[in-house]
Structures are given as C-alpha cells and as structure tokens.
C-alpha cells in the first residue's frame, strides 16, 4: 500500500513538473528589466525569453516579437533552447513511462521485476529531466546576478530574475523529487 501511495505521489509530482517545464520553456519572462540608479522608466517593462522579446507599456499594451534568425542568437541562448526542448520531450516520455509503470505494477504477470523496469526507467528519466531543466535556468540566473552587480554594465541593460526562472527551479525540484521517489 505504501508503495502505491509513493508511486501516485511521484506521478503527481512528475506531472506538475512536466507542465512547469513546458511553461518555463514557453514563457518570455526569463530576464526582466531592472529599475536601478537613474533608470526610472517605469512605464515600460522589457521581458527577454528563449523564443521572443516582449515590451509591456503601462501594463496595458503588450508587444512581443519572435527572434528573427537562429543564426543571430548568442550561442548560450541556442544551447538553452535545445536543452529545454529536450527536457520537455523527456518529461513527457518519463511521465508516460511512469503511468505505464503505475498502471501495470499490481497486474504484472511476469512478477514484480517486469513492472519495476518501467518504474526505474521513469525515475532515471525524471532525474535526467530535472537536471536538464536546472542547467539553463541556473546558468541564466547566475549570469543575470553577475551582470546586475557588474559596474561596467550600463543601468538600462541590467536585468532581474524573471518568473520563468522561478517556474523552472520549481519544476526541476518536482522532477528531481519524482525521480528520487521512483528510484
């Protein structure tokens, strides 16, 4: 009975982590404009994401523009896009493996060993997915903090941590917890 509760809890955590990974990948709020020093232009907020830049004016008008060219992007952004897309695909795959493992655990005709392969594979996949999400989110957060405290970066170019980073950290923690439960 305790194993069933643990499996269902892992499935719920993994599902919420999967949705969070998808949301963090799609959200444009990875970097948000900071209001420091003489930069008190408060009627305009700039968001920078993996796929687009957005400008919000007075919270009323929102303009978003997708990046024009893949070749014009900086290499870290290209790598972060790739890692997050792989993480989304792996999150969906690991969630499906967890569903199969949970569904067929009590009804397995080949003994508990056959069903535990799906559970163990889902656990390893959840752990890998959590790590893949954690890398670009933490790297971006670290570079934002480094640039914020760098005196050579002009005040209008300083950014703050966006909501997508917090969603990414939360979903990475849920995916790692689900993976630990299944392993």
Give an overview in words.
The relative contact order is 0.22. The mean pLDDT is 86. β3 and β4 form a beta hairpin. The chain has one domain: Butyryl-CoA Dehydrogenase, subunit A, domain 3, CATH 1.20.140.150. It has 4 helices and 5 strands, in the order αββββααβα. Strands 4-3-2-1-5 form a 5-stranded antiparallel sheet. The chain is an alpha+beta fold and 183 residues long. The longest helix is centred in the C-terminal third of the chain and has 37 residues, at 112-148. The chain has helices spanning 2-26, 75-104, 112-148, 163-182, and strands at residues 31-33, 44-48, 52-57, 61-66, 159-161.
- Amino-to-carboxy terminus distance: 17 Å
State the strand order across the main sheet.
Answer: 4-3-2-1-5
> What is the global morphology?
elongated
Give the count of helical stretches.
Answer: 4
Number of domains: 1
Q: So what's the CATH class? A: Mainly Alpha
Proportion of residues in β-strands: 5-15%
Question: What class would the helix/strand composition place it in?
Answer: alpha+beta
Computed over alpha carbons, the radius of gyration is 20 Å
- For the secondary structure, the number of strands is 5
Largest sheet: 5 strands, antiparallel
* Contiguous runs where pLDDT drops below 50 for at least 5 residues: none
């Amino acid at each position: 009975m305790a194993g069933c509760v643990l499996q269902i809890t892992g499935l719920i955590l993994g599902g919420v982590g999967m949705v969070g990974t998808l949301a963090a990948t799609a959200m444009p709020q990875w970097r948000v404009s900071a209001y420091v020093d003489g930069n008190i232009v408060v009627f305009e907020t700039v968001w920078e994401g993996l796929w687009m830049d957005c400008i919000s004016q007075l919270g009323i008008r929102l303009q978003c523009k997708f990046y024009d060219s893949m070749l014009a992007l900086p290499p870290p952004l290209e790598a972060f896009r790739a890692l997050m897309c792989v993480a989304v695909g792996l999150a969906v795959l690991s969630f499906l493996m967890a569903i199969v493992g949970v569904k067929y655990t009590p009804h397995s005709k080949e003994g508990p060993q056959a069903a535990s392969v799906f559970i163990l594979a889902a656990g390893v996949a959840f752990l890998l997915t959590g790590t893949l999400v954690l890398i670009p989110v933490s790297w971006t957060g670290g570079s934002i903090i480094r640039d914020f405290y760098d005196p050579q970066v002009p005040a209008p170019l300083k950014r703050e941590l966006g909501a997508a980073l917090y969603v990414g950290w939360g979903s990475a923690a849920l995916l790692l917890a689900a993976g630990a439960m299944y392993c």
